[in-house]
Amino acid sequence: MSLKKYVTLLSALSLTLAVACGGGKEVVDEKELGTDDQAAQTAAADNTGGTAAAATAAAAPVSADAATIGGVVKFEGAAPKMAAIQMGADPYCASQHTSAVNDEEVMVGPGGELANVIVYVKNAPTGVAVPSTPVVLDQKGCQYHPHVSAIMAGQPLEIRNDDATLHNVHAMPETNSPFNEGQPVQGMTSTKKFDKVEMKPFRIKCDVHGWMKSWMVVLPHPFHSVSQPNGTFSIANLPPGNYTLVAWHEKYGQQEQQVTVGPKETKQITFTFKG
Amino acid sequence: MKPQEPIPHNYPMRKLNLIFAVSSIGLLLVTGVMVFYDYIRGWKWYQLEFNRLQADRIEQELNAANDATTRKRLAELDAEMKQGQVEIAKNRDQYLLVQKELDDWEGQHYAADQDYRFAKAKLDAQRYQLETSVLQHRADSAQQQRTYDAMLAHVNELNLRLQRVTHDRDAVRARLDRFLSRIKELEDRKKELTANIDLFNKQLGNVELASKRSILNLPMLDFINPTLKIDQVVLGDLFIDMNYMSVPRVDRCQTCHRAIDRPGFESKKEAERLITELQGRLDRNLIQPTKRADTEDRIAQLKRIVDAKQDILNPFRTHPRLDVFVGSASPHPLLEYGCTSCHRGQDRATEFSRAGHTPASLRMLQRWEKSTNPLFPGPWDYKKRNWGFAENPFLETPMYPRQYYQAGCLKCHAGQMEVDSGDEINKATHIVELYGCHACHKINNWRFTDLRKPGPNLDGIGEKTTPEWAFRWISNPSSFRPTTRMPSFFFQRNMIGPAVPPREREQNIRYQNAEIHSIVTYLFSKSTHRAWSSPPNGDAARGQELVSTIGCMACHVAQDTVKDDKGVVRVARRDDFPLERNYGFNLVGTGTKTHASWIYNWIRNPKAYYATAPMPSLRLSEQEAADITAFLVLQQKPRFMQTPIPPVDRAAVHDLAKGYLINTMTDVEAEAKLRSMPMQEQLVYLGQRSIEKYGCYSCHEIKGFEGLKPIGTELTIEGSKAPHLFDFGFVHEYTHEDGEKQHILHNVPSWVYNKVRSPRIYDDERTKPYNDKLKMPNFHLSEEEARLVTTVVLGLTKEKVAANRMAAADPRLRAVEESRKVISQHNCRGCHVVNRNGRAIAALINDPNYLPPDLTPEGGRAQSPWLFSFLKDPTVTKIRPWLHVRMPTFQFTDSEAATLVGGFAADGSQTQFDTMRYQTVPQQNAAIGREVFAMLRCSQCHSVTPVDPANPPLPNAADSQSLAPNLTLAKLRLRHDWIADWIRRPDEMIPGTRMPTNFPRDAQTGGFQSPLALAIDTPQFAAHKAALLPYFQDEQALRKTMADAVALTNYLRDYIWSIGIDQMRAPGSGPGAPLAPANPQTPSTPSAPAATTIARR
Fold first, then answer.
1. Which of A195, B347, B510, B910 would bridge with B652, disulfide CB 3.0–4.6 Å?
2. Which residues from A are below 8 Å from B283, CB to CB?
3. Choosing among A14, A25, A29, A165, which should be mutated to test the B contact, i.e. which has the most B CBs within 10 A?
4. Are A11 and A112 part of one and the same domain?
């Protein structure tokens, strides 16, 4: 305790022995306290590391208890009439379609089913392994297939150009890095990744063909689905628990529902968007 | 001998001895106390405390560096080393043999080297012999020559031998090294791994050693080399003014602020901010690959700080902006700039109060004052954060309070329009420029001189509006337009405020009304009365559409209310909008203020109304102008025109006019003079004196006031004025017009802040004659605006720095700054991004593709001759036909346009003239480029045929003419080398551009990849391949080129160059050219308005 020695020496010389001594002690105490804290902290850090690793290990395999949430998205009211896309600016695009193609913003089935709704779990368990199978975004007939999609952060996104025309894939995320790549060659693919979770859906567009738009959301887990033309969706392999289910549509916004699923249970949920 | 008689004393000796004894002991004690007091300086305690903190931190870092993975890797390396040594042992015999051989060769080498050197020395001696012998014409010169030649031959021979021996020895040495190389490499790797740990251990040793050496800190011994000592930097060319002389600064701040330049002692909040910032830069790949590991380490360190139990408090915190200030790699390293050159304060002081720490708020002051100066400073003071603060009004250079830190920038950066990373000071100087502080208050530095007057020319006010409107406007401008920059002069706090006695208030109201009447009378009596042609019928809906699409909203706002975050509608403020959009007036109430004919002619050709009008021409057709006029006329504020106007109060006019007259004549003469003047004349006289009194001419051009000096106090060195030169009046706290309580501290920053926030406040509780009351008008500044304006005022000091420390001193940067001034004065940033800043219009245009261009790369992009023509007349070439927003015709003077062009070229480190345009491209390159162009399908967006003037592309069409610039213009417009660079990395140059990246970077190497590398062999490109083959040696060479992004982009550039047109029309000619500037009009008298219309082209 060299500090103490120093302080003692000083106090011998000074007139304020008592005061200086008290001060010195304070410093010393603090030092000891500091060391203890640090030790405790290191221990705490080790602990958290351990639990996180354990959680990852536990969540990786699909549990035997896995539940499934399925359901249908309905549309109420008169379906808005979608305008026909004018593809005249690029003769190639027009040549790929024999009949008029309508805008895909609102697609309502004959029984009032709403397609292209992203359904995902809001509070899913994290630490689930990132799927190595890519999400595919295909450009065919100068349209995006699928029109909306969800992807897990870190999961590869394969963008394909099946058209013999130039497309540029202009992704405009806010949190992730935006990109804008040209795909002049038919059959060309580029693989991209979004590293960060982005719950607010962002647009992917083609500047060459102004009508081409796709929406994407980046989630921290793989529990998501997109409603089919018949309105159905299904989220499988979900550990049992309480969840908030989110349904998002590019025109009609977002809805939420609370769902509880037990082990091996299959729940049916209905979302209804009003026109 | 007689015993000596005691000498008689008039005072008792014994008593005196006692007094002497007591006083000498007392003196000794006082000396002791003095030494002691000199010894127990507060900063020593801070240093002790910091050593403790530092030891903690180093141990923490040490633990982090010495983690399990490092230990494991070390163990692995040790094992490998052992393995290596075992191998050497196995081949021991061979090793020893080689070692012996090497020893042998070393011996031979030594001998050969020695022989050569001796022989060479002898040769030199012989050369001297020979030279003297020849010089003195001695007989033996021939003999000497022969000896010399023989010796030279010998030396050459020895040299050859030496070279041979060296060569052989090196070969043997290499053989030996091969045995040891593995061990050496492993040792190096180990050293690399433990470097950090060793460093931390050494640092820890230093800190602990400090405690062992602490005996040197004892009084009297502390002159040797104490561990606790004052830390200072001497700043040779940054001066501090010591009255009558400037001396170099000696900053001792680090004596207490120990970790100011040392990363690792950030506050938790700062650490969190830095983590987000650094992580963001990592994610966006903004950090060079070589620096990535360092950045990751730094993030880990910051995370440890966030997780640490205790937060670091001042004075031990690291500077929050090490990347900009005091960091050794920053533009302002500690050793060159110190602290006080920016923060101000007494550089040599080592005590809290004397150093000039200034409280930022009343709360801070109260907290500081609670802690008195301790009798015996010690560690307990640090614990209690007890700094012994006492207000010192005699400090010449107190520090800037926290909220005005950026004031310190102006001293060196006054020659710049913008300071890098100085967002606040940049906004602040922009506010001062835009709101026109410089117009009334002379500010003699480059940034605030040669700026336009902030208000419009009033020579034609009678053509534009009515006296009734003008009266109401002057009385209360912000009731008409809450966002206006015109300040309120009348009916302010010191005239009608709560503190004014009722009788005086009544008189003030009468006087103020009389003054307004007189000003209006003066202005309208001097106004010209040209008649303006009335517009054709317009469609207001179309006008509204035009106003919101062609770019008016880059400079104007058209609303006087806004919805706040909670959806509640409230009155708009200037700072609800970007500064650029406050450049033009708020369009609200335009129809109430003026009439259709004036609007129509004004928007068609603003310079016709007055030549220096800041509004540019948008080249509106007659119909477009009529439509916009129809829309603007509908912008009515009928209630404003219902506010009553009191009749002219003759007595008040008489009193006020007499008040001025008796300055030069007697009371009787003044009365007589007034009697001889009719009311109108009295009003004009009083109007002139009132305009003079309030300084209206400082901001507006007014006839009869040409060349007058501005009215306000000069602010050039306002920030250096001592507090006693300010009139604090009698107020310490008051209620602001917003209803919030304000406090005035007795320091200059607080005085200035409250002055700009509430300009008449220092008249409260004072008795002053009417004309002596404070006159500064009320700008209704928000807290933020007032803080920024105060920052600028405080930054205007008399402190000097050496010329080499002034920012932007070299000619290239001067050219950039001069151009930025023109840019600011013409509000180019309303539409454009310049130097990564601006584009206020972006908030109103949903699709980023329809935004005006980003000019950040313009210097490297545009050829100067084209840019000059384009600035003079934007119709010479239409680059982006898809935009609705129009590039206005500013009617720049040649000098302004040249300043802009020169500034852009300098900004891009380019010359203004080059010979590239005259170069012809090798035909072969162009042909290859054409094929590549076709394969990449560039023609899908870019047209390669000149624009048909009869059928020009229209905004928002979807054909290839309207997606991207026509490439036949590239040769006229773009710089040769820029084209290829742009094709390679468009998104890096302009983030978010529509131009796709065709050569994406490889994630690992960072090199460009070519999409044609593989595609060239696909059947779809068979025809292109066949066309390309003749230009290449063989297929292999072709493939190699197709994979080379740089070569491909150069071919593309050559192709683009080959299709370029060589001519553009002269600026100001041809269709769509702007209207001629102001047409001289014959002013006519109001009684007989002439029916002349403004000639239009």
1. B510
2. 177, 195-196
3. A14
4. no
